[in-house]
Amino acid sequence: MNQYYYNLPPKPQSFAPPTQKKLLKDQYEVLQIELGSGTYGKVKLALNHTIKKKFAIKIISKSYMKQIFATQHILNELNYLQACKHKNIVEYIEHFEDRDNIYIVLEYCKHGTLNDLIRKRNKLTEEEAFHYFYQIAQAILYLHEKDIIHRDIKADNILLQNSDVKVCDFNWSTFLPNGGKAKPCICGTTEYMPPEVIRKEIHDKGVDIWALGVLLYYMLHGELLFRAKQKEELYEKICSKQPIKFNENLSKECLLLLQQMLAHQKRINIQQVLNSNWVIKMLRCKNNSSVLRLTPIKCRSSAQESTRFSVVSDSTYFSSSKFTAKSQDIEPSEKQGNISQGTQDQNPKKVKSSALDQNNPAFRVEKKYCS
Fold first, then answer.
1. Residue positions in the annotated binding site for ATP?
2. H-helix segments, the chain
3. Residue 38 near residue 365, CB atoms below 8 Å
């Protein structure tokens, strides 16, 4: 019996309809790459399809934010990000929200964090450390001139974009006009906290100077100045006045600056940091082939009432915008005047941190950045 085989037509292939990409605000595609995570949410890489550019999006859960009483922290961060325009502060793009989350769009810094760099390199030379230190100090100067204290300066909060550094994370920031003092609270990251914060005393802009000193020590030594397994032991080390062991190869100018920044009393201010012999020496070595522009900076600290000349980078950019937010967490040394006087904004935003009225523990943001 003959068998016949027929070439049957192939079965039609079924194609699943392409899944539509969910775009936030009809333009941001959130990619799977996670840039960092913290107490309030995650930071993810996003692509803006309208302008074909990548950004970092901080995604904050509304339900969790209310659960840990962090609403005011987020309002703080938005307020300060919008008020600050400086080349060494991460750029705020916009923010929006939906039913579940708040989204903060920031510039994308593709070269990771300063902490990543230090861990990779083990430790930095004075010249390398100065490159990052000077830019961070310029950002702090800008903030302090606006009467803003960051209160969480640390290697994880310094982003790298090419050769520039970008200070980020303003959750713990506060506004202290007219030499005011912040009410006692535990704020920031423990290893970088100064003794006055650990002891729950009133504090001022000096908290950023202490943290900057700890950060400089970390860059030069490859390890944090204060380390312990238990928080109580760490508190004790920070508050004790035990002599600090420094690298023997440090220059005397750098050593002196570290001691002045890590002083328990009469800590120098940011103007004095930028007027220090180490900073001037390093700038002159770096720019010995170019003309230096000397700008007078008034030292307002009682420890050194004087005016010196400091070398200021021509690339430093200061915004002319005025910060008009009024903080509720201030213990003024004397009766405060109208802080918005002389500004055009007649209805400044009011900012207060819930952390100042609660025993919220300090949190650490662990970041992981991809290049």
1. 58, 169
2. 62-67, 71-83, 114-121, 126-145, 195-198, 206-221, 231-239, 252-261, 270-274, 277-286
3. yes
Domains of the chain, with CATH numbers? 23-107 (3.30.200.20), 114-289+321-365 (1.10.510.10)
Binding residues: 58, 169
Candidates 347, 354, 346; CA nearest to 328 is 354
Distance of CA 273 to the CA centre of its chain: 18
Pick the catalytic residue from 116, 152, 204, 329: 152
Q: Mean pLDDT of residues grouped by 10 in the chain (371 residues)?
A: 56 56 88 82 92 95 85 88 96 95 95 94 95 97 96 96 92 90 91 95 96 98 92 92 90 97 95 97 72 37 34 34 39 36 35 32 33 34
100 in catalytic set: no
Q: Global pTM? A: 0.74
Which residue, among 194, 216, 209, has the nearest Cα to 273 in the 3D structure? Answer: 209
